[in-house]
Amino acid sequence: MSSANRPRGATAIRAEQPALANFRLPRLKVRRGHVVAGALVVGCLVIALGLDTEESPKPDLQVASSEAAVTAEAAPLQHEKPATGLPEPALSVPVEAPWEEQVVRSGDNLSLIFKRAGYSDKEVHRIVTESADGKGLARIYPGQTIAFQGDAAGKLISVRHVKNELETIAYTLDEHGVSSKTLAREPEKRVSTATGVITSSLFLAGQEAGLSHTTIMDMANIFGGVIDFVGDPRKGDTMHLIFEELYLDGSKFDDGEIIAASYTNQGKTYTAYRYTDAQGDTGYYNEDGVSMRKAFLLAPVDFTRISSNFNPRRIHPIYKTARPHRGTDYAAPTGTPVYAAGDGRVIKAGYSRANGNYVFIQHGEQFVTRYLHLHKRRVKQGQKVDQSQVIGTVGSTGAATGPHLHYEFLMNGVHRNPRTIHKKLPKAKSLPQTEMAQFSASISSVTTELAQLQEDMDTRLAMTRPDDDRG
User: Fold this and answer.
1) What's 188-285's CATH class?
2) How far is the C-alpha of 351 from the C-alpha of 369, rounded, in Å?
3) What stretches pass through the bilayer (predicted)?
4) Whole-model pTM?
């Protein structure tokens, strides 16, 4: 406190000194008992003032000599834990042992990977034999990650098998054995829309609309029973999709399912909606509840151009003789996937000089499909196959002038034109009438959204059409 502001007749006490250093009682004649009582009063004042020479701020005591009264200027009281004068104990935060990651290389096995990480075949054997998921660790693929964690002594205590971005298997090793658990992540689903106009091909139109190759092929498979995307699409056809995209940590991770789609081919519109029926089976149905999945695909190959149609009188390009061409040739680059046209069983799979690598599939009692000149076969005789399953790849083996698929369709042993026989094939199944109300309710919102996409497309096309075409 400055001398200008110091109260008259008051004595300032240095904050650095103990509070009792300059404290003086008035010289009064008192009895011994009074002295004791006075000492007790002073003691109480000391306790009340909470004097602390180390941590608490020092109050300025003022002694009024005329009245022998003591006052103090103290800081406001706070509800805090009383100071003990002892240092606060440090928090003990356990530090996790570091992880060492090994990326699976081509030709790797568990023994090699564990050795690179500094561990022996003993640990490999423990995990594979003692853990419930151990056999799964033995099935590793290039690009996957295996991480190792050891203790301070270098002993292996944990292993992580990162199978993909969504699934990790964690193994823990201790004196009791090896335990494992699956760590799964769920991607975020975001709904997107896309529209496109066919100018040259479905694939290019899909790319221009921002669709991935996977989504384009999924759409082709959905409509594969009613549209031959090799021969049917025409310039000016339109497509509209409502589909899911999967995100992880804010970035696109993968393509999701198509929720609804429509394709207008030469003025006729086909519509498909994804729906799970009462039995738990998921498929695509048109607005009337009729399944889009037909008994056979119209084109059993990734859509491209057709080099030769069904022609019973054509001249063979190699043998130069009039040999019936009882099928359809689909020209495509070597390695293009070839699909099973329908569910069935492989009755023949082999090689001949004329057919090259071939696969024959029996579908029920009436139908057989044949696939010739394959580069590679992916199925064996006697194997059961599903519609759209890859059974081989396009090639030019046997009597072929270039890479293509020769596809034949037989009904009761007679060759039929694969592009027209579908009109005589069994009808697709429909949802039961008891389920139609639920189906209609489930597709209500996407039906409206799909119609809006079609309307917006029609408006844009009308605005860009030349004046003399608007008539």
Assistant:
1) alpha beta
2) 16
3) 33-51
4) 0.66
pLDDT tens digit sequence for 228-246:
887 778 889 999 999 999 9
Neighbouring C-beta atoms of residue 249, cutoff 10 Å: 9
The CATH-assigned architecture of domain 99-184 is Roll (3.10)
Residues 6+ apart with CB under 8 A from 10: 62, 63, 64
- Domains 99-184 and 305-424 are alike in CATH topology: no
The pLDDT, as a whole number, for residue 17 is 42
CATH of 305-424, one of 2.40.10.340, 3.60.15.10, 3.30.565.10, 2.70.70.10: 2.70.70.10
Token duo for residue 210: 């921002």
Amino acid (one-letter) located at 108: D
Q: Which two tokens stand for residue 118?
A: 């500094």
For the four alpha carbons of 207, 213, 217 and 218, in that order, the dihedral sign comes to negative
| Per-domain residue ranges of the chain | 3-73, 99-184, 188-285, 305-424
Distance of alpha carbon 295 from alpha carbon 429, whole angstroms = 10
Spatial CA neighbour of 292 closest among 310, 270, 309, 308 = 270
d(CA 332, CA 305): 7
Mean confidence (pLDDT) of the chain:
80
pLDDT of 30 over the 70 cut: no
